[in-house]
């Protein structure tokens, strides 16, 4: 059995609340959910590094907001945002959070669209 250690971290309050709901619905703990996801991330990253494949690193950088979508697509050799989002889904990585100002503008544009 692996040796475990305690550590202190911080998480968005709403994210923690939602994680607690999932943990309760799946009869598990936040700790078990966190460990499973962190293990997946680490093992996938290490496997990609062993084979010299930088694609997962690019996707992680995009997910963390370190690079923009156009740079990620150029580096990965794809030409559509849809393909980028599909890769993010396949890699089980979250899409980067847009700044609130961008989200607000998108909502404004959607609300201005004609309704059927």
What are the salient characteristics of this protein?
single chain; 116 residues; mainly alpha; 64% helix; flat
Task: Write a concise synopsis of the structure shown.
This protein has 116 residues and is mainly alpha-helical. It has helices at residues 13-25, 30-50, 55-63, 69-76, 81-90, 100-112.
List the helices and strands and how they pair.
Elements: H1 13-25, H2 30-50, H3 55-63, H4 69-76, H5 81-90, H6 100-112
Helix pairs in contact: 3-4
Tell me what you see in this structure.
By secondary structure, this protein is mostly helical. It has helices spanning 13-25, 30-50, 55-63, 69-76, 81-90, 100-112. The longest helix has 21 residues, at 30-50. The protein is flat, with a radius of gyration of 18 Å. The model has no long low-confidence stretch (mean pLDDT 91).
Tell me the structural class.
mainly alpha
Continuous helix count: 6
- Helicity range: 55-70%
Q: What's the Cα radius of gyration?
A: 18 Å
Q: What oligomerization state is this entry in? A: single chain
Could you list the spans in which at least 5 consecutive residues all have pLDDT below 50? none
């Amino acid at each position: 059995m692996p040796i475990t250690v305690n550590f202190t971290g911080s998480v968005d309050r709403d994210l923690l609340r939602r994680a607690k709901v999932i943990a309760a619905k799946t009869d598990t703990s936040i700790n078990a959910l966190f460990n499973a996801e962190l293990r997946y991330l680490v093992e996938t990253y290490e496997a990609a590094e062993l084979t010299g494949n930088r694609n997962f690193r690019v996707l992680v950088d995009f997910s963390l907001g370190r690079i923009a979508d156009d740079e990620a697509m150029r580096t990965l050799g794809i030409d559509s945002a849809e393909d980028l989002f599909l890769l993010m889904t396949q890699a089980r990585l979250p899409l980067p959070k847009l700044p609130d100002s961008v989200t607000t503008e998108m909502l404004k544009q959607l609300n201005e669209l004609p309704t059927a």
